């Protein structure tokens, strides 16, 4: 597998949809994640990220323009002890609740499938970061229709133990723009984690998302030794 440039992957795709990046900072001291959302419709673009406890949630920027909250209002990030959950939908709550009952990441996601938004059948993408006693590992998942067939759900989980400093994996919902939107294919992309610190990384991601379609970005750096974290949120709607 070729190590890709995250900057080029973002800049070269006008509509990756929603995306999750998880990896380790260049200095090897931080677990890193980014989650972004994009939108083509007024309903999808009418959103902001707001902090909610240790996580975040989406919120309508202009409540009067909110036409259908079902697939756009949710908590993308929640924290369960030493685990940070990042997803593109309300499966965040499913993972949180079932892992709190001692089920695994995969077991929790077996209760869910892709979004019911035919003809796109948007994949549900999820990630989980686990930090304990100075060690760090993470996993990513995608639940997608069987090549556009809504009667069958394909489930894939990818686990990464002892991540390498300066490297990450990137998964997103769509291969690019289209009608219907083509679902992400293959395993998460292996990308270089560019940027010397949280602000440089946040700016790089935000600046390379398509200007017309980008909506919001969340970035978190977690100290692997202490568990303390820094967060950045960028919203196009101000």
Structural account:
The structure is a single chain. The chain is built from 5 helices and 14 strands. It has a single domain, classed as 4-Layer Sandwich (Glutamine Phosphoribosylpyrophosphate, subunit 1, domain 1), CATH 3.60.20. By secondary structure, it is mainly β. The strands form 3 sheets. Strands 1-12-11-2-3-13-14 form a 7-stranded mixed beta sheet. Strands 6-7-8-9-10 form a 5-stranded antiparallel beta sheet. A two-stranded antiparallel ribbon has the order 4-5. The model has no long low-confidence stretch (mean pLDDT 97). The protein is 15% helix and 42% strand. The protein starts with a strand and ends with a strand.
Gap between N and C termini, in Å?
40 Å
Count of separate DSSP helical elements: 5
Strand adjacency order, main sheet: 1-12-11-2-3-13-14
Along the chain, the helix and strand elements come as EHEEHEEEEHHEEEEEHEE
Largest sheet: 7 strands, mixed
Structural class: mainly beta
Strand fraction: 35-45%
Mean pLDDT: 97
- Main CATH class: Alpha Beta
Determine the CATH superfamily. Answer: Inosine monophosphate cyclohydrolase-like
């Amino acid at each position: 597998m070729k190590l890709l440039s995250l900057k080029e992957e973002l800049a070269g795709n006008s509509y990756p949809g929603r995306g999750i990046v998880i990896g380790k900072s260049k200095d090897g001291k931080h677990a890193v994640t980014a989650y972004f959302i994009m939108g083509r419709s007024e309903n999808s673009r009418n959103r902001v990220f707001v902090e909610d406890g240790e996580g975040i949630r989406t919120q309508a920027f202009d409540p009067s323009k909110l036409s259908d909250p079902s697939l756009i209002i949710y908590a993308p990030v929640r924290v369960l002890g030493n685990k940070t959950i990042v997803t593109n939908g309300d499966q965040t709550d499913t993972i949180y609740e079932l892992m709190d009952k001692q089920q695994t990441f995969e077991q929790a996601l077996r209760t869910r499938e892709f979004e019911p938004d035919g003809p796109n059948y948007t994949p549900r993408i999820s990630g989980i970061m686990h930090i304990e006693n100075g060690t760090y590992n993470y996993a990513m998942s995608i639940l997608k229709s069987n090549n556009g067939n809504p009667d069958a759900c394909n489930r894939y989980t990818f686990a990464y133990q002892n991540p390498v400093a300066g490297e990450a994996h990137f998964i997103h919902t769509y291969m690019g723009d289209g009608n219907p939107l083509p679902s992400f294919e293959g395993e998460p992309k292996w990308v270089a984690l560019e940027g010397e610190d949280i602000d440089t990384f946040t700016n790089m991601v935000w600046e390379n998302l398509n200007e017309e379609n980008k909506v919001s970005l969340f970035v978190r750096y977690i100290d692997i030794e202490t568990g303390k974290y820094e967060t950045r949120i960028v919203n196009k709607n101000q």
